[in-house]
Design goal:
By secondary structure, the chain is α/β, with parallel strands linked by helices. Helices cover 44% and strands 19% of the residues. It has a six-stranded parallel β-sheet. A four-stranded antiparallel β-sheet has the order 3-5-1-12, with helices on one face. Helix 1 crosses helix 3 and helix 8 packs parallel to helix 9.
């Protein structure tokens, strides 16, 4: 990830945490006192966000030495040291929580994504995220999904047209909605239609939708939907997807499985920063 694009995230997080100063470090440590620390995974997981951690330390002490030991997207065992930092002790401790928050959160997303990807191995289905992300952190959380082997769905509402049930109701039907969408956008913009029934699947495929969002369909119904489409559009399964159900969904023949839980349901990993004396 690009330092220039990431720096605003780090600066905002540091402002939130420091506010005026770190009174604990100011009270206990000399301004010139130096220290070293290492970031350790306390559980197995997929690493993500170390660049953000590096930037957090460097923002508070530009001349500190930061060594990133593992590339994002790497699976590591518990006990693995992934980063080392040496510099002003007060700066290291003041940046500690921000650095850990980013790595813990993003590594949790990457690790959960990798579990979903592993569960669908051997099928053609790709695991994708949704827009159910933490406000302001979407770019980072979607990066974490990619580090876990997943794919990104829409980043924002202007990425593609996604015609959902409320749009269909307001337009008077799928065919009318797709026609309006085609007349509004150019040839390069994809049109996706949410379908709750096999009749809607048939209608959406017949009127030229590029992608069909098969919402809350059981695996057998998904197989029937894939059979109706016959490759005329991509088939995306969504709704009711978890680690227990995802393989059966993937085996139905769908092309994509979108999982909101990758971002809104991931738990932060247990990762620590330990001072080296």
């Amino acid at each position: 990830m690009n330092d220039f694009l990431l720096l605003p995230f780090v600066e905002g997080a540091l402002r939130e945490d420091l506010r005026s100063t770190d009174i604990t470090s100011a009270a206990l440590l000399e301004p010139t006192q130096r220290g070293a620390a290492q970031m350790n995974f306390r559980v197995e997981g997929v690493v993500c966000g170390l660049v953000l951690a590096r930037l957090a330390f460097q923002k508070l002490h530009p001349n500190c030495e930061v060594e990133v030991l593992v590339a994002d997207g790497t699976r590591v065992e518990a006990g693995k040291t992934v980063l080392r930092v040496e510099g002003k002790a007060a700066a290291i401790l003041s940046a500690e929580r921000v650095a850990l928050n980013f790595v813990q959160r993003l590594s949790g997303i990457a690790t959960l994504t990798a579990q979903f990807v592993a569960a669908t191995q051997g099928t053609k289905a790709r695991i994708a995220d949704t827009r159910k992300t933490t406000p302001g952190l979407r770019a980072l959380e979607k990066y974490a999904v990619r580090c876990g082997g997943g794919k990104n769905h829409r980043f924002a509402l202007d990425d593609m047209i996604l015609i959902k049930d409320n749009h269909i109701a307001l337009c008077g039907g799928i065919e009318a909605a797709v026609e309006k969408a085609r007349n509004f956008v150019g040839h390069s913009v994809k049109i996706e239609v949410e379908c709750d029934t096999l009749e809607q699947v048939r209608e959406a495929a017949n009127c030229g939708a590029d992608i069909l969002l098969l919402d809350n369909m059981a695996p057998q119904m998904l197989r029937e939907a894939v059979g109706i489409v016959q490759g005329r559009a991509l088939c995306e399964a969504s709704g009711g997807v978890n680690l227990e159900t995802v393989r059966a969904i993937a085996q139905s023949g769908v092309d994509l499985i979108s999982v909101g839980a990758l971002t809104h349901g991931a738990k932060s990993l247990d990762i620590g920063l330990d001072i080296s004396i």
